[in-house]
Amino acid sequence: MQSVSTKPYLIRAIHEWCSDHGFTPYLVVAVRGKMQVPMEYVKNGEIVLNISYNATRSLTLGNDYITFSARFNGVSREIAIPVGAVVSIFSRENGEGMGFEYEGVPDELVDNAPVAADEPSAAASDKGPDDEPPRPSGRPQLRVVK
């Protein structure tokens, strides 16, 4: 019998703990191959994402995927992250959280990732990982935090 991973349950628990205490939950995701994330924000093969309820829309912390909509540089993007690619979840305010082993992402999960029909693929971006898009002022936005 195959054991069920505790990782998605721990991610949900830390997210709930952050939200209950007014902290901002952030995910660190290892980006390998085709993933539905904004590639222009990937640094050193990782992306850091604010997954608070205020920064996301339709957040789903599932057992196989974490999916949500968020605005990047004023443009709404659909994000789908395999849970196996999550490296850590932590509170921005105090750094408390939990790190995980990169579990790899099976090809069938990447190939069957939920995709929004009206959103362009993040992998189709022609910007390099070191290009920082200009930030318009006046509206709150997600920031990449190191």
Automatic annotation (TrEMBL):
The gene is sspB. Residues 113-126 have a biased composition (Low complexity). Gene3D superfamilies: SspB-like (2.30.30.220). The lineage of its organism: Bacteria, Pseudomonadati, Pseudomonadota, Betaproteobacteria, Neisseriales. This is Stringent starvation protein B. It comes from Chitiniphilus shinanonensis. It holds the Pfam family SspB. InterPro entries: SspB, SspB-like_sf. Residues 112-146 are annotated as: Disordered.
